[in-house]
Amino acid sequence: xxxxxxxxxxxxxxxxxxxxxxxxxDVWTAATGQGWLxxxxxxxxxxxxxxxxxxxxxxxxxxxxxxxxxxxxxxxAVRVAASAGRLDLVERLAEGRAGHAFATTGSVVAFDxxxxxxxxxxxxxxxxxxxxxxxxxxxxxDLTPLDPAVTAERVDxxxxxxxxxxxxxxxxxxxxxxxxLVAAMLxxxxxxxxxxxxxxxxxxxxxxKPIGAFQAISHxxxxxxxxxxxxxxxxxxxxxxVDEHHPDARRRVAAARRHTETAALENTxxxxxxxxxxxxxxxHDAHRLLKRATFLAAGxxxxxxxxxxxxx
Amino acid sequence: xxxxxxxxxxxxxxxxxxxxxxxxxDVWTAATGQGWLxxxxxxxxxxxxxxxxxxxxxxxxxxxxxxxxxxxxxxxAVRVAASAGRLDLVERLAEGRAGHAFATTGSVVAFDxxxxxxxxxxxxxxxxxxxxxxxxxxxxxDLTPLDPAVTAERVDxxxxxxxxxxxxxxxxxxxxxxxxLVAAMLxxxxxxxxxxxxxxxxxxxxxxKPIGAFQAISHxxxxxxxxxxxxxxxxxxxxxxVDEHHPDARRRVAAARRHTETAALENTxxxxxxxxxxxxxxxHDAHRLLKRATFLAAGxxxxxxxxxxxxx
Amino acid sequence: MRLRPTxxxxxxxxLAAEWLSRNVPREPRPPAGEPMAxxxxxxxxxxxxxxxxxxxxxxxxxxAGLSLVEQMIWFEQCARFDAPEPxxxxxxxxxxxxxxxxxxxxxxxxxxxxxxLRGDQVWAQGFSEPEAGSDLAALRTRGVVDGDHLVxxxxxxxxxxxxxSDWQELLVRTDPAAARHRGLSFAIVDLxxxxxxxxxxxxxxxxxxxxxxxxxxxxxxxxxxxxxxxxGWKVAMTTLGFERGxxxxxxVIRLLKLIDDVKELARTRVDCRGQPLSTSDExxxxxxxxxAEGVALHALAVAFVSEVKRTGSxxxxxxxxxxxxxxxxxxxxxxxxxxxxDGLTTDGTDEAARFVPAYLHSFGHTIGTGTAEVQRNxxxxxxxxxxxx
Amino acid sequence: MRLRPTxxxxxxxxLAAEWLSRNVPREPRPPAGEPMAxxxxxxxxxxxxxxxxxxxxxxxxxxAGLSLVEQMIWFEQCARFDAPEPxxxxxxxxxxxxxxxxxxxxxxxxxxxxxxLRGDQVWAQGFSEPEAGSDLAALRTRGVVDGDHLVxxxxxxxxxxxxxSDWQELLVRTDPAAARHRGLSFAIVDLxxxxxxxxxxxxxxxxxxxxxxxxxxxxxxxxxxxxxxxxGWKVAMTTLGFERGxxxxxxVIRLLKLIDDVKELARTRVDCRGQPLSTSDExxxxxxxxxAEGVALHALAVAFVSEVKRTGSxxxxxxxxxxxxxxxxxxxxxxxxxxxxDGLTTDGTDEAARFVPAYLHSFGHTIGTGTAEVQRNxxxxxxxxxxxx
Lengths: 312, 312, 389, 389
Known about the structure:
The complex is a heterotetramer, with two copies of chain A and two copies of chain C.
Chain A: H1 7-20, H2 27-33, H3 52-65, H4 71-83, H5 87-93, E1 98-101, E2 107-111, E3 118-123, E4 128-133, E5 139-143, E6 152-156, E7 164-166, H6 168-203, E8 205-206, E9 209-210, H7 215-243, H8 249-275, H9 286-297, H10 303-311
Parallel strand pairs in A: 1-3
Antiparallel strand pairs in A: 2-6, 3-4, 4-7, 5-6, 8-9
Helix pairs in contact in A: 1-3, 3-6, 3-7, 4-5, 4-6, 6-7, 6-8, 6-9, 7-8, 8-9, 8-10
Chain C: H1 7-23, H2 33-49, H3 68-80, H4 90-103, H5 106-118, E1 123-124, E2 142-146, E3 149-160, E4 167-173, E5 184-190, E6 196-202, E7 208-221, E8 225-226, H6 232-244, H7 246-268, H8 281-311, H9 317-338, H10 350-362, H11 372-383
Parallel strand pairs in C: 1-4
Antiparallel strand pairs in C: 2-3, 3-7, 4-5, 5-8, 6-7
């Protein structure tokens, strides 16, 4: 029993943070440079063979910065390609990007599809993941995304070509992994919102003292901190449980996914309120965290599926 | 448009408060003395012909004190008797008490049935109200009530004698009236819990000042006060709407019932917390208010029925 | 107690309904900028010409001279006929006008009140500063008397609608030696005065609702002071009540309609099994809570106008704004959440276009016009009499 | 990171499971009074004799000398086999023992630690006073040195289990001239000492959990001081951490079982249409929230013991208690609410007898061992470094 992060994990986080906190421009280059997409891929598929727990720590940093770049979709696409035996596709994707959509036919809303090479189509109902080639001709309309760091497109999927597909247990495993990494990103947001709030509450003065001296603010910060610590812990707990094939892994993943979703939404709302009018501006990062949290909350393993897993 | 209480209503409240706040012992005598049971009964049935809005203001005081004595059940029983044309029974009940149960057959849990002359049986499913004679022989077991100011009994209803029954629109009207008066009692509790909290927060000192100077306490008190003001207003609103046969009356009654239930439970929980360990003792009134609120919340027009009326 | 209208109230409501049914603009309100402001002004002018502007304002200032009860009835009818909101005229009608009625000079009233009712003047507030948000008494913008003018230097921020406004209410420090809220004065300023610069600020919903206003040697005639030099805090505090109570009445009524719309949304949208969302008892319970709170808030507003009419004041005024703000947030969030993944764009569906921006905008409800925390301080101290920290 | 046990952890867990499967008492715990205390003592003695008492206590004091990780594993196995809780020995094992290990003299350790592990000594705390609840530094109970004794006069209140206890930890003011928390001393007192009077207090659930203790010239040998004269605040603060972190670990694990029981309750009880309550998606969503929070709290406890083992301390310790307290309240309230009208008696059904008293008792969770508000102050100031008000 040891949920304390390893030295390697802490180094990984430090390296990732150096990139994500520096600004969004070069993140994608750094992501490929630092091997983010290959971190959890088995070594025999050309990956670094990291654990899901390692990946979770990395994705927490990605979440915390709400940076642009479809890291989860692309790394999942790489895995789908590998799992389907399409190692040529794995190699091609080392330089590429994947958009994603939670539908497999017709006219659907996809995210980050405009500049993508492939589209990851997720069918949660039947439990399958499919890769299709993505071209600009498939874009029916560019939409305005809630999260300003993604793009949203209405895409026509009638083309029908499929590059790779996984179903059954293999797809199930990818969906579980993706849910853990969504939880990790949400945990990162939960912590980032806490940090923003605490820093601001310690500096901003009103009525002759820092606002963090008022319980309306300090107790809210304490609540945020508790959610943040628990969010990190439950994500680690779920990730390690998956790595170790623990019999409770599915339930723990659902728990992590739900706790972090609630925590991230609560904390991002709270940090806007703690920052007052400043937190309501476009210029401040608070809304980016809120919107990213909302975007992720609707992603892999949404609420109804969580409920099912948690009450089974 | 005028929801400001009338002079008569304010006098009624002052008189009732003099009794309820003085202590529980003589409340039932006073209740009959002040004509509480007959307040809303039409004058041609021997009542005082008060409006439901008048009754609501009275019941708020009854709720606020969480006194013993089955006022609502007995006044409803009187009305059922009157509505069924049993004026002899109306007269008999002027000196008597009614217990009540939310079931009409078999072995059921009744409240305040031990010393009752009749039992008011409420069938919410079919919408009927029935009076049956109550004898000690019907008591199968005395139970321990959650609310220490009521009694609870397991009662055998196989006797079958029915003294009076109302169904259809007449029963519907009685159920709506009872729901408004439950809301009124809950509103009274909501206000009483607020008053207790504010008074204690202004007096109790810790860290060199009244605890009401700390936002953790003062903001909670502000929340309680908002719920309390809204609880009173929405109860008046619903009662007057029923009195005036407003087309939205049903929905407003459900709104009053739900708002006051939530408000009373929140405020009684909050007042225990504001009082700290003192609020956790048997000796302090806070738990009586909480338990009465819980008791009433399960009464006429419970949550599922409210949801139905509010989303129709 | 009575909800049924008196014959006079009934007549007022009928006339209002009749007029609104024929005059509510059919064309959509432009989404931003000067066209939006022109729309709001035109609608106000239409009301003014027909005698519906300023229902509760005194007759001598161009109002109808009725009570808040009639004002409430007017709002109810406006909601019923989906009339446009005051929009950019919100501060003029809801705050600046009442301030001048309560504290202005005769000249100020003559110069502005009828113009406001006609929709000819768009107003903004000018209270908050970068270092004085919740703590207004810490404001630093300075006004120095120079002959018959006040010369103002400094900056105001979070000024809603400043970029579209003609006039501004301005709270400035005129006596730097006096402590905190002593030494403040309340002036009104023509925003075309030289030295005023307005820089719009983009909000989290990507739109410009407010601005920062800079004052560089702005000369305001002393006759534009409201109250005397040094009376600014008193004027500001007296008049914040308008904003927190009466100004919210119209929005309360409109919120009831929005709750209906969210209920309708739940009836028309389906879940993954093709069932309407409203068939979920989780969704139904949530909507029932919103509906119950909406009715309770409506009732509180009615109790408030009743008490004001009968006794001249009501402490419920301080509660309506925070209750509205928080319920409105919940309603708008529920709308956005019912959209599920469709809520991840602001234009993928008509429903998203309606509910997602409203949700984002709602974060301002518990910050503007005093944060939720400040509103609770006000209730705790002024209504409940709890000690200050 | 690793959850899978090491071979040593696996062996420890297996041995624990094997022993518990054969030794957990089958008879129900008496509900109150001396029989209840006797039951708790006997169960503790059984553990002690088999070497399971004080898993994380040093060997020289009779413990097993293992880490909090093994302590956690032990709690997990105890929950698995439904072993009785420490009950009246809670303070002795969770607080008094650790205090003496950390701050006691050799004599004190010899006199008490093994006795505590054997279940021979029931302990109570003695911190709060009528005028010093959250504000412990305001306490007034006085201790005056008289020869080699401290003579104590005053009163302590909300002392859990005082009416069943042998010993008490006592924080008293020994230097009335020193300000607030300076001038306090920490002593341990034999509750049979002349001048001690214990008056039980009935709680809102109708039961006696705590008492008020009065001291009238109670003579405590100076050798019973923990730390020196005037060190009381330091000792108390150092040791409150035990209560807030490690003492809660066992209850966290038990809460997971209770959540399972509430889920089972929802599966077995039916609504008015005869459907299991669990088929309502409102109920299901609520239970899923509880389960998710329960797992998160479990994870936090594991992260806490891991960090303590690796680094010697963890600020998560201050979070476990408030998170536990509030989740536990929600779980118990959910249980009571699922009962519907059956929840209006405490003995009408077996389920009511189980869940309603638990719900009532749970109101104490956010009051005892520091109110929810004080716990947040601690996190804000000591963990987050926010300034004091």
